Amino acid sequence: MPLPKICPLCNTKKKNLQKLVTAKVYGDKRNKKAFFHCFNCDVRYQFPRLSKKEESVFYKKEFEKFMEKRSGKKSSWTKVESHLTLNQETFERRNKYIKPYLKNVKSILEIGCSSGFMLYPMQKKKIKCAGIEPSGVFSKYVKKRGIEVFDDLNHLIKKHPKRKFDLITHFFVLEHMADPISFFKQQIKLLNKGGKIIFEVPNVADPLHTIYNIKEFEEFYWQIAHHWYFSKKSLNFVLRKLETNYKILYEQRYDLSNHIIWARDRKPGGMKYFSNKLGEDIEIYYKNYLKKIGKCDTLIGVIEIG
């Protein structure tokens, strides 16, 4: 497979700094895509990437079924009420680090709000909420719950050119954006003075990739829906371009049980499977240790605008 001529993130043209990671991309039915590692900025990127037309069709018509196939029907990407219930723990996990930033926040925009499970508790706090969600499955439901939803940021700006927010959030959205730097700059323009952006993104230092070397996980991990896989170094590269105050935190979502099931059965779906036998203390220690050594599955970014 030929190497790309240029890294799409840092624009380096040095071919010796580009290396093939994998030619097996989950969801690539035509087997024409691959992921490469740029050693200059440390990002992993898909090449060739989906065209704008392919992306539009994928997110409007295929994304939920694609995600349900990856995660299993228990994830309920096509059943909104079940999606809400199953993501209650996700809300609680995220709320722990978001809560300190909610002081004086009167308006929130969530990009990629899915079923709205992160917004409804904020709505109850009398915070004015809005969402960006291209999926017809989720957006209709969220609108019925009294939250204004837009197809994308351009749709929001066109309809409300002067609208500003105190907080913008997005969770596992950045890796889907073709131009992450422009994506953030567009958000910054939508913030009030003192506003913040809080987001999550997969960490390419995920222990299932960097420690355990499980073939089936590799074939599952690298997926067609992602333009990028960021490390702390490559995320730093992006955020430095914004000339704002920011910090990057480590997070571990999946537990020891999940990793044992991957090692034993070579498939996902093991969350809490052994927790009653191992004990919650072991699960907590395991997650905290992975964060300590930076071999965790998630990065949290916090951007603060003066």
Plain-language structure description:
The chain is an alpha/beta fold and 306 residues long. It has a single domain (71-304), classed as Vaccinia Virus protein VP39 (Rossmann fold, 3-Layer(aba) Sandwich), CATH 3.40.50. 38% of the residues lie in helices and 20% in strands. The protein has 13 helices and eleven strands. It has helices at residues 52-71, 80-86, 88-98, 120-124, 136-144, 153-159, 180-188, 207-210, 215-221, 232-240, 256-265, 275-278, 280-293; strands at 18-22, 34-38, 44-47, 107-111, 128-132, 148-150, 165-171, 191-202, 228-229, 245-251, 298-304. A seven-stranded mixed beta sheet has the order 6-5-4-7-8-11-10, with helices on both faces. It is globular and about 45 Å long.
Descriptive keywords:
alpha/beta; four-stranded antiparallel beta sheet; 38% helix; globular; 306 residues; 20% strand; seven-stranded mixed beta sheet; Rossmann fold
The gist of it:
With 306 residues, the chain is an alpha/beta fold. The chain is built from 13 helices and eleven strands.
Strand content: 15-25%
Determine the CATH superfamily. Vaccinia Virus protein VP39
Order of helices and strands: EEEHHHEHEHEHEHEHHEHEHHHE
Helix content: 25-40%
Strand element count: 11
CATH structural class: Alpha Beta
What's the story with the biggest beta sheet? 7 strands, mixed
As laid out across the biggest beta sheet, the strand order is 6-5-4-7-8-11-10
List the topology elements.
Layout: E1 18-22, E2 34-38, E3 44-47, H1 52-71, H2 80-86, H3 88-98, E4 107-111, H4 120-124, E5 128-132, H5 136-144, E6 148-150, H6 153-159, E7 165-171, H7 180-188, E8 191-202, H8 207-210, H9 215-221, E9 228-229, H10 232-240, E10 245-251, H11 256-265, H12 275-278, H13 280-293, E11 298-304
Parallel strand pairs: 4-5, 4-7, 5-6, 7-8
Antiparallel strand pairs: 1-2, 2-3, 3-9, 8-11, 10-11
